Amino acid sequence: MPRNLSPSASPVRCADIASSAFDAVRGDQAARRFGDDLRGRFHAEHCHLFSSGRAALSALFSALRARTPERDTVSLPAFTSYSVASAAVRSGLKVAFYDLDPATLCPEPGSFERSLGPDVVCAVVCHLFGYPCPMNGLADIAAGHGVPLVDDAAQAMGATVEGRATGMSGIAGILSLSRGKNITSVDGGVILTNDSELSRAIAGVACEPSRRRDIPALALKALLIWALQRPQIYWLPRSLPFLKIGASVFEPDFPIGEMSPFQAALGRRMFGRLDEINQERVRNAEDIIRRSGKPGRFPEPAPGSRPVYLRLPCLGQAGREIPEMGVVRSYPQALCDLQELRPHVVHGAQDCPEARRLARELVTLPTHCFVTEADRETLARSVA
Ligand SMILES: Cc1ncc(COP(=O)(O)O)c(C=O)c1O
């Protein structure tokens, strides 16, 4: 069978899936324990667990909106996961965009500031592919407009910048545990905040309770992730287009639910290995950059930051995807060009040419645990 690399993978273990299912059935206090671990590591006073990262983001938007009901817009990077825009629309909000600096993948400060206005509920900063964005300057700009900052660390769990963990700047942060993130619990999302009033508002957002009867289906999905992300088997899901593996979809009609005890138990087990898993990604990414001999093709991590390279982004690679090696464009269109999002974009939203260029020219290289030395050499040689 052909060996295929997936663009992203998370090294979930069979034994952890079995123990987590057992814990969930037994009624172990998995969610409380996972929440305690997260609060401890991130020095967060409050932690809320959700069924997905987009559910967490949407609950956060709704809670922030309740504080400023006269505002109706979220400011987003024009190049990011379509899930971020889906969450804004799910919360009944309009979207405005700001552009990114392609050399760092961080917000371009002038464009960021222009996206903020009296109607903006919050501005979201995403640490794309595990590259942390410095937040202090952006927080100052946002504060100047009375706009709270949301620190979206869905792709950067375990990274640090300016001496803080990503996810812990701004009024609140989010993490994701979906398939292909730094660690996975099949799906899962977290809100972290030190704002007690906001935490009460989040607790008040309508949220579907988790059901015991979902445990077998979730455990089966975890086993499928374990099996199908392997290079010997990945050709199978890749050859079934209806599975939409790796596709970016704008889908604002998703459930907002509690994280189930199974997801919390599995998330907690993987969280215990977060640094070890991230270190492997860092080693792989740095080795590919070194072997390529073209460090200028890769975005520059912010000075003093510790990136976690969920994937390794590579610039100026238009048309150079190699799907069987996991080299893909992550977001085929900038959010400002996404047809389905048009009805939700504020009038006069900025044009974001760099985001457009990133959508055309940026590919990501895999950095996960299934990438071998031979793969790193092939990946490095593929960089134009
Ligand atoms: C930056 C960012 N924010 C939020 C999300 C939503 O997370 P989830 O996939 O867990 O719904 C994603 C998912 O890809 C993401 O990349």
Highlighted features:
single chain; 13 strands; alpha/beta; Aspartate Aminotransferase, domain 2; two-stranded antiparallel ribbon; 13 helices; binds pyridoxal-5'-phosphate; 384 residues; 7-stranded mixed β-sheet
Main sheet, how many strands, which sense, barrel?
7 strands, mixed
The succession of helices and strands, N to C, reads HHEHEHEEEHEHEEEEEHHHHHEHEH
Q: With helices defined by DSSP (H or I, 4 residues minimum), what is the helix count?
A: 13
Helix content range of the residues, please?
Answer: 25-40%
CATH uppermost class: Alpha Beta
CATH architecture: 3-Layer(aba) Sandwich
Short note summarizing the structure:
The chain is α/β, with parallel strands linked by helices and 384 residues long. It has 13 helices and 13 strands.
Task: Tell me what you see in this structure.
With about 375 residues, this protein is an alpha/beta fold. It has one domain: Type I PLP-dependent aspartate aminotransferase-like (Major domain) (Aspartate Aminotransferase, domain 2, 3-Layer(aba) Sandwich), CATH 3.40.640.10. About 35% of the residues lie in helices and about 15% in strands. It contains 13 helices and 13 strands. The strands form four sheets. A seven-stranded mixed β-sheet has the order 1-11-10-7-6-2-3, with helices on both faces. Strand 2, helix 4 and strand 3 form a beta-alpha-beta unit. Helix 1 crosses helix 10, helix 3 crosses helix 4 and helix 11 crosses helix 13. It is globular. About 55% of the residues are buried. The mean pLDDT is about 95. Pyridoxal-5'-phosphate binds next to helix 3 and helix 4.
